[in-house]
Amino acid sequence: MRYPRQATISASSLCYNPFRSTATKNLMERKIIAFRQDPRREWIAVLECGHTQHVRHNPPYQERAWVLTAEGRQNFIGVPIECGECHLTIRHAEPRDFYFVTTVINDWWEGRNMRDMLPKLFFTHFRDTSFIVQEQSNIVGFLNGFFSQTFPDEAYIHFVGVHPAFRKHGAARMLYEKFFEVARANGKKIVRCVTSPVNKTSIAFHQRMGFEIEAGDVEVDGISAHTNYDGKGESRVLFFKSL
Amino acid sequence: MRYPRQATISASSLCYNPFRSTATKNLMERKIIAFRQDPRREWIAVLECGHTQHVRHNPPYQERAWVLTAEGRQNFIGVPIECGECHLTIRHAEPRDFYFVTTVINDWWEGRNMRDMLPKLFFTHFRDTSFIVQEQSNIVGFLNGFFSQTFPDEAYIHFVGVHPAFRKHGAARMLYEKFFEVARANGKKIVRCVTSPVNKTSIAFHQRMGFEIEAGDVEVDGISAHTNYDGKGESRVLFFKSL
Q1: Which of A48, A83, A118 finishes a domain?
Q2: Could you tell me whether strands B190-195 and B154-162 are parallel, antiparallel, or unpaired per DSSP bridges?
Q3: CATH number of the domain where residue A213 is located
Q4: Per-residue pLDDT tens over the stretch B38-86
Q5: What average pLDDT score do residues B157-178 get?
């Protein structure tokens, strides 16, 4: 049988977009051409545009029992769903982007003062490893990274931010994958970054992106961390990923 | 005539050092071998060790009318004075230096919160362009810089700090000159950095070090600045120096 599309994968529930007008709605529907599993064995739909979308069965939040059977998945081959990433474009960062980012960064972090941690120099002197994701003309995400001067085969991701309404839309993944691509093209073998042990969302994201955790001196909720890594009271989880 | 040394250039007044014991006092006396002028036509004594020391006539703070005449300067050739820089050694920064710097940085800036502006990554991934100045085993200054990825012939100085008791002892000059040397050796043609228009000491220091000011959109006390350069309300003076 073929399930009615809206009952199972709704474009609107997959992709809430405060910027998009109803006039452009459904313009980015793309057919499912295959399914595959991520490293945690969760199902991903591969779309005709080459982008992918998680189609999790995670009751009671996401009811998609069909994805667990070969027959269920087969029934969805050819079904068009809205592609979050087809709305998004990625480009290198420019110094002018700093002015936008600096005005929204504290809001995107729910009022935390993150401003001082991001000087303009990353948008000026590390443009080739810094990226902006846009939805039409709106900036909805940024990444600032660099190639290590000390370790010629290493690249480092310093700061990543995504507009709260665009999280889980693939924006962060686009930014990381673009960074990996540029790092690989420049002969880098490893990418590093750090996060706070309390940031469970960030830890889970990095694990999904294929990062491993460098063993530290303490365990926080089952995750190995490095005490006082970034100064007193500032423990960190250290990630690395081989390219 | 030959002036009595202590009456004119006192080692103790030139170089207050809270770390040094009386046992080591005068161990670093070096003979004056020549005099020259800086770009602002102030007099500098060149010592036998190769280091230099300003010998300003700036009454009523510094009374050295003798330095203004050729005869007066000639009388001081061969006179030993304490060399502030011979006490100081310079080396590349290491990640472990971050832990010391992060504990003193706010004190060195008289309580201002500068901590967030200096992540550990500069001590890890930019070691070849970051330096530490020590007085014996004590860290008394640091510089974090990098080579621009975007502009292959440019180097950038991000952060420089000197222990308050070691300012005017040549520590900052040592750090900058080491950075220039490494930048030159790596084919860089220009060094850039920024400071706040209210930081008159920093502006004067950069001018003494041969930096020029990039013309901005506003003038603050006769100095050209760039409004909102580092975000809203954060105007900056932009320096550049050709190597």
Answers
A1: A83
A2: parallel
A3: 3.40.630.30
A4: 888 889 999 887 788 888 888 888 889 999 999 999 999 999 887 777 7
A5: 89
Least confident of A25-29, A155-159, A175-179, B214-218: A25-29
| Whether residue B170 sits in one domain with residue B105 | yes
Q: What is the pLDDT of residues A142-194, one digit of tens each?
A: 999 999 999 999 999 999 999 988 887 789 999 999 999 999 999 999 999 99
Q: Which of A92, A102, A121 is the best substitution to test chain B (most B C-beta atoms within 10 A)? A: A121
Size of interface A-B (CB pairs under 8 A): 75
A161 in the same domain as A221: yes
Same domain, A149 and A29: no
Q: ipTM above 0.85?
A: no
Structural domain containing residue B16: 5-83
Peptide bond into B60 cis (omega under 30): yes
- Collect all residues of chain A within an 8 Å Cβ-Cβ radius of residue B150: 124-128
Tell me what the mean pLDDT of segment A49-76 comes to. Answer: 88
Query: How many CB atoms sit inside 10 A of residue A82's CB?
Result: 22
Q: Where does the pLDDT of residue A27 fall: very low under 50, low under 70, confident under 90, or very high at 90 and above? A: low
% of chain A beyond a pLDDT of 70: 89
Residue of chain B nearest A113, judged by CA positions: B116
SS3 readout for chain B? CCCCHHHHCCHHHHCCCCCCCHHHCCCCEEEEEEEEECCCCCEEEEECCCCEEECCCECCCECCHHHHCHHHHHHHCCCEEECCHHHEEEEECCHHHHHHHHHHHHHHCCCCCCHHHCCCHHHHHCHHHEEEEEECCEEEEEEEEEECCCCCCEEEEEEEEECHHHCCCCHHHHHHHHHHHHHHHCCCCEEEEEECCCCHHHHHHHHHCCCEECCCCEEECCEEEECCCCCCCCCEEEEEEEC
